[in-house]
Amino acid sequence: MKDFVLNLLRGALMGAANVVPGVSGGTMALLTGIFEKLVNAIKAFDAEAIRLFLRFRFKELFRHIDLPFLAAVGSGVLISILSLARLLEYLFDRHELYVWSFFFGLILASIYFVGNKIKKFDAPVIVLFLFGTAIAAALAFAKPATENASLPYLLACGAIAMCSMILPGLSGSFVLLLMGNYELVMVRSIAEPDLKILIPFAVGGVLGLAAFARLLSVIFRKFPDRTLALLTGFIAGSLAVIWPWKEPSSIRTIVHGDRVKEIVEGYAYRLPDLSAENLVALALLLAGILALACVELLAVKKKAD
């Protein structure tokens, strides 16, 4: 029961991260120590799982896919998204700078705590960290592609977006926006369900995630330090997306029936001045750093006990 509650809380942190644009649930999975276990659990949805299901050997199937772990984490994610979505929507609407500042502090601190898990720093580790940082930062400044509803592209969008959701530092919705199909998939096809769009996207997501989880599991097992370095780089590069002091420079308004949604496609970045508002924001940034430091210290103390 204790493990279930702890995994429920870890899932809640992942769900909270996924609600914030540009923040990845994978970052929280890595910080809370369940990233590799989560990848292995996803990888377990394989031919053996299908064989056990077809033979009605459900008890063995549940052990094979680690159902208690997935159920706890999945429940935490769902509860967190449903409970925090409206609260964060309210806070973003009225105190956007403060929300971005707190999460910037969290992600900034996570670079240190995730990187601290690397046991040996050598040239490949440093190169992969820099490479991951460059890739994530480049995505932050990339211009969105044009919309494409072709079957192969929808399959690719589903696969890449779902893989991005479990990778630290990368946001699935942000990647989908860059691929040009955010409006098509997340707005129009959901508001008025269009199975010709949603089914290929979902199939691509399931197949891509299953294949990617297997690849990631092998790489993590064989090259743990280098994998952590690359993932830490992704987190570092994502700071460009959540930098608090930025103004939208390119906004696209989507009108679909009575729904109006604004999508920011570009930002103008600036440095903070010493106004009272920015001082509060800087204090919240520091609070985000301290909050994560406290969580990590508690985790270390628990492991020591």
What is the element layout, followed by pairings?
Blueprint: H1 2-19, H2 25-31, H3 35-43, H4 47-54, H5 58-64, H6 67-115, H7 123-141, H8 151-166, H9 172-178, H10 182-191, H11 195-222, H12 224-237, H13 239-242, E1 246-256, E2 259-269, H14 276-304
Antiparallel strand pairs: 1-2
Helix pairs in contact: 1-2, 1-6, 3-11, 4-5, 6-12, 6-14, 7-12, 8-9, 8-11, 10-11, 11-12
Description:
This protein is mainly alpha-helical and 305 residues long. The chain has one domain (2-304). The protein is 74% helix and 7% strand. It is built from 14 helices and two strands. The protein has helices at residues 2-19, 25-31, 35-43, 47-54, 58-64, 67-115, 123-141, 151-166, 172-178, 182-191, 195-222, 224-237, 239-242, 276-304; strands spanning 246-256, 259-269. Strand 1 and strand 2 form a beta hairpin.
The helix/strand class is mainly alpha
H/E element string?
HHHHHHHHHHHHHEEH
Distance between the termini: 19 Å
Beta-strand content estimate: 5-15%
Number of domains: 1
> Largest sheet, if any?
2 strands, antiparallel
The neighbouring-strand order within the major sheet is: 1-2
Work out the radius of gyration: 20 Å
Can you give the helix content as a percent range?
over 70%
User: Low-confidence parts, pLDDT < 50 over ≥5 residues?
Assistant: none
Number of helices: 14
Mean pLDDT: 83
- Overall, the morphology is globular
What is the strand tally? 2
